[in-house]
Design goal:
alpha/beta; 7-stranded mixed sheet; 10 helices
Amino acid sequence: MLLAIRKCAFQIETIFFKQFLFYSTKSNYESNQEDYVLNFDTNIILRKEHSKFLKVAILGLPNSGKSTLINQLTKRMICPVSSKVHTTIHKFESVYSEDDTQIVFLDTPGLSSPHEMKKYKLKETFKTDPQTSIIEADIIGILQDVTNIYTRHLISNLILDNLKNKRDDSQLLLLLNKVDKLKKKAILLDLTRQLTSNKKFPKFDDVFMISALTGDGVGDLRNYLLDSAKISDWKYNENVFTDQPYERIIEQTVRAKLLDSLPNGGAYKIQVQIEHFDLAEDGSINVLVALKCPQSHYMSILLRNGGQCIKFTSLAVEDELQQAFRTTVKVKLCVERQIKKET
């Protein structure tokens, strides 16, 4: 316990020193490795001599930063992110391969109570995906939002209940996220003591203090995971960076950006659908995406002021997809009235 707290104190000193520096979010996703564009061939498994493999599940409450962290760890904007809850609606597998080691990150929907599932009309995957990921994972990271003064000193009962399915041989990490938002380092030390000494909470194998947004501390976490991988065949070819088809990545990225653009949760009700996809010879992508609105009110919001909302959303989507696919992406959004099917 004392060693863990001493380690955290050292991490805090480093974090607060680095806060004097500027971190470019975009550059944090850049990789020195050779880029591969739109390679979704998951059937070819590359076996290297002495290859190592690891599965990592990141769990946390909605909007704790799970998807942002995985994007930083893999150096690609694969997982959709927004400032709203329930951006991730099903399990993603994001793949990071370095030298002889491959890590598969399981991004799951934020853990939700039965009340939230009913309120937001969430799919059953919000319950089953985290359970499945916990069983599969070699390492489970519990992500705590240290800026939430009401929940940061507690491990949610939703997390504790799901951890009952944890394998005996899997490791458990405590990940204190959004540390860049705290001005007093004493808070982090106090949180570490509370979360690691409470007998009602699980025993953590290690503690990391990170900022998924700026990337601070993420490199140390990535190195820890690389060192923890075991001798095993890889699950994916080295060119593959996700198990998701490009259509789903594009649609979910558009949806995430709409969540940031529209007020009062209107984006949750808009259907996002790809109408046309074109992959040019030079590797660039052109895509037409339809936004099917259930009410004319949402159409008016999207199209008012000369369609400024649509223009800004298109640019944000293009920027994120270019970081994901490492190629030029042009996105055109069209607004349509959704026609309800007669029953």
